[in-house]
Amino acid sequence: MTDDSEWLNLFVPGRLCLFGEHSDWAGSYRHLAETPGYCIAVGTDGGIYARVRKRDGIIVACSHLPHIEPLCIAPDSAELLSIAKAGGFWSYVAGTLHEILQSYPISGLEIKCDRMDLPLKKGLSSSAAVCILVARACNELYKLGLDKRDEMELAYRGETLTPSRCGRMDQICAYGQVPTFLTFDGEDLAIETIPLGGLFYYLIVDLQGNKDTVTILRDLNNQFTNGEGAIGEGIRRALGSLNQQIVYQVRAALISGDARRVGELMVEAQTIFDRLVAPACPSQLQAPKLHQLLEYPPLQELIWGGKGVGSQGDGTAQLLARGPEERLLAQSTIESELGLPCLSLF
Description:
Layout: E1 8-19, H1 23-28, E2 37-54, E3 59-62, E4 71-73, H2 77-86, H3 91-101, E5 109-116, H4 126-142, H5 148-160, E6 180-185, E7 188-193, E8 201-206, H6 213-226, H7 230-256, H8 259-277, H9 282-285, H10 288-294, E9 303-308, E10 316-321, H11 324-338, E11 342-345
Parallel strand pairs: 3-5
Antiparallel strand pairs: 1-2, 2-5, 2-6, 3-4, 6-7, 8-10, 8-11, 9-10
Helix pairs in contact: 2-3, 3-4, 3-5, 4-5, 6-7, 7-8
């Protein structure tokens, strides 16, 4: 295959965890977890737009960011693994390609990211979207016959080769903008799509704060698996039976179209997280910017509720507006008075 091979256009969205953050990895510890892990997630409007094509004997990846040097490397499994473990900019690409090469004869490819309207390190799974993009590029270019679950598995295994300690939820972005109910029982993952019974007007707010997802995941994993005191017990309860109760109620409310009830459950879920999970990583999860937004008085008559996103912290917040006009007004208020950019969803 020459450099003149035909380009293929791909788009992979990020994902928004509506409820059940951290339940994916927690549910994998079935000898410790009270229940399986449960979460509700949906693909975002924003994502990664890229062109891909076959290349013989070389892997080339180019970022849309001008200051990032392209990745140029032979399809060598050992070198890709080294790049993944180093945790640099190209680690997610390298980790996923390493996993693909373990099972499939990929001779090379080129990936050009043309645009990315998904903020980095904001809890919207930009890293998982990159991994899915790589898996899908290989699948489409080399006709591997993989389904979405196969792509998710390769992306998950690729990301776990990096310093990120992600769970299996993030890769649900492979399903696109479809609300899904996920169950994590050990290594088993069940995926159920959720039919929405009405319109839900979400507003995603970039808190423009500092957030270290690697530190959050490390500290919470340590407390979940090794904590014997109140903090360890609290996080296992929060990510177990309490989370189970909430997500089942949310699924019913989404199906019935009860936006008000979903908003009430957002507030309840955030309260549980702040009380039982945040103490396991206070440096990252006290989240003053998040709580300033959630408690901002001018928003209270415009929204049904709000909570953090992804691993939580001061990355991104989600608000459920009472209607389309209220969402517009909430967005205007947040951007003009708090100086924070917003993204509409649904």
